[in-house]
């Protein structure tokens, strides 16, 4: 390990739709996430052909409607982050708080005022806000009325939202992220693009069209942020799963190359390099369409070149092993990408394979490919916590996981990688995006709420709270 730089951005990360609650307060509109049921079957429900964004409280629970009520607890929560010593806090702005239906021309002032308060509270404790513009959330009205991100009209609505947000906060926010885990749409397009079976999710051309529209929006956001504040830093954000061929069989090696290009590299290539990669045509051919079938404009490509991101941020939870030669191998669960079980790795309670070395590999691969600073903005262990009678959680398993991954970041620094920071996911317990559960917990702070919505919402420090506090205080020297 190499020593962490003095300006290393230690912190934590959350998302509006998983913590805020207050889903219908102060003018907020309904988002697609408000229509996603809670529970481990949520993805199966959403994948049904008849899913149509209707909220049915008699049939399903919607834990995101309450979240952990950060909307009313943000001062208490940010104070706890400050006690841990956070240098930065990555959070997202809910599009539906700013433009409730998405197609208005005037923003909702009460929504803007809420994020004024959150940002000012961070700055009070010298915590740098790192703000995600689009984090698995968009107005239901836009999806049902205009058909999701595959419709080019989304660019106009999204730019109007970005303009309102940057105009309001750029004096206090230097670091921005455009689209959260933009590449996740390859395997599950509902949260990032608003695509389900009923509006075209099964047609990969729609996913690639949506990506093009998002690339244009991202590039526009980069340019606009730089115009408003020249020292702004705007990053892309991908879900990165380090990929290994299962064995030395050349067929598996080639399959690994292809999967890595399509999942880990394609979106970042366009956003970081400003042009489509050479392998793009082969991807489109696999799905039966050509680039000329996508709706584009000549000005798009100039904008993509002008609006390349300043840094590469990514989530890392697991690696995956690629096999196409042996159908008898057991498969693995994962964060959208599972692959086959890697015999050299253990897995979490949800079957995600734990691989700290894979994070070091990811950091090296990303930095050497793009030559831009990299930022680990999500990493963590989803686990069932068992508090004692005093609501204390002795989460040594979480400490072990994070310690191993922080050591991997230190290893990447020693390799010469320019790593900006590390913000573990779910620094306070929140509703899991993949399962819609509270019981899949990530945080340093326990929130007294269960999967049925019962609990006091009180906050309690876990053992990992003081451990991470010391990690930050010693700048990673004591793990």
TrEMBL record:
Superkingdom as given in the UniProt entry: Bacteria
Ranges in a coiled coil: none
Keywords: Glycosidase, Hydrolase
EC top class named in words: hydrolase
Record: active site: 378 (nucleophile)
GO-annotated cellular components: cytosol
GO biological process terms held by the UniProt record: carbohydrate catabolic process
Gene3D superfamilies according to UniProt: Glycosidases
Similarity comment: Belongs to the glycosyl hydrolase 1 family.
Descriptive protein name: Aryl-phospho-beta-D-glucosidase BglH
Originating species: Limosilactobacillus coleohominis 101-4-CHN
Lineage: Bacteria, Bacillati, Bacillota, Bacilli, Lactobacillales
